[in-house]
Write a structure and sequence with these properties.
about 220 residues; mainly alpha; globular
């Protein structure tokens, strides 16, 4: 009778599955044509990262990582999406996504960024652990894709979503150092994130109330 595999021995395979989930959600986020769908895919992406952190904490029997996983799941998967939906309802805007670059092209660019991040990580940090490389490459890919969304999308609301994809990438990068960083610092980062989404939501609403504009093209016209 073969011995039961330990959680730590199963972690690499579990990490691969969860990372695949996160990246698929990211590509679907790029391809979504409605703001509601983009918020849902952001929440699903955040859920994958929270589960990943929880799995790391469980495998290494680290209570701090488990607590952070629960807090991140509540903040990123529930509170932030609820606030974003509230802002979307309060600010009149088209439900579709307006972009400077076609959505299929954006999806191809996102896929290229994912492959580039994995290639760079595997060649520059080939002597590191599997977990470190996966966290680094996935985090880099999310940061790049979030910045891409901020550059090619017209609506301020969609650009805010891109900023939160960047934040998820930074969150993924910090998982490699979760055992060294004091928990109070990480909890503070999450709290600042929640405050940030409130401020940005108010800002988008104020821009619309003052100028009746929520896209960069409309704001550019006001300069004249």
């Amino acid at each position: 009778m073969s011995p039961t595999p330990s959680p730590e021995s199963m972690l690499p395979l579990l990490v691969d599955y969860i990372v695949a989930w996160v990246l698929i959600c990211t590509i679907l986020f790029l391809g979504a044509q409605r703001l509601k769908a983009k918020i849902q895919f952001y929440a699903m992406q955040s859920l994958g990262l929270s589960v990943l952190l929880g799995a790391i904490g469980l495998a290494h029997q680290n209570t701090k990582a488990l607590i952070l996983a629960v807090v991140a799941a509540i903040g990123k998967c529930i509170i932030i999406p609820l606030i974003l939906r509230y802002v979307k309802r309060r600010v009149p805007m088209n439900k579709g996504v307006e972009s400077y670059v076609a959505i299929p092209t954006t999806m191809l660019m996102g896929g290229g960024m994912i492959m580039a991040a994995h290639y760079l990580t595997n060649h520059l940090f080939y002597n590191q652990s599997h977990l470190f490389n996966e966290m680094l490459s996935t985090g880099m890919a999310l940061v790049f894709i979030g910045m891409l969304v901020m550059m090619v999308r017209k609506k301020a609301f969609t650009q805010i979503l891109g900023l939160y994809v960047v934040d998820n990438g930074i969150f993924c990068l910090t998982m490699a150092t979760v055992f060294e960083m004091p928990m109070i610092i990480e909890m503070g980062i999450l709290f600042e994130l929640l405050l940030g989404v409130l401020v940005m939501g108010i800002l988008v609403q104020r821009i619309h109330d003052s100028f009746q504009a929520v896209t960069l093209d409309e704001l550019e016209q006001l300069k004249g």
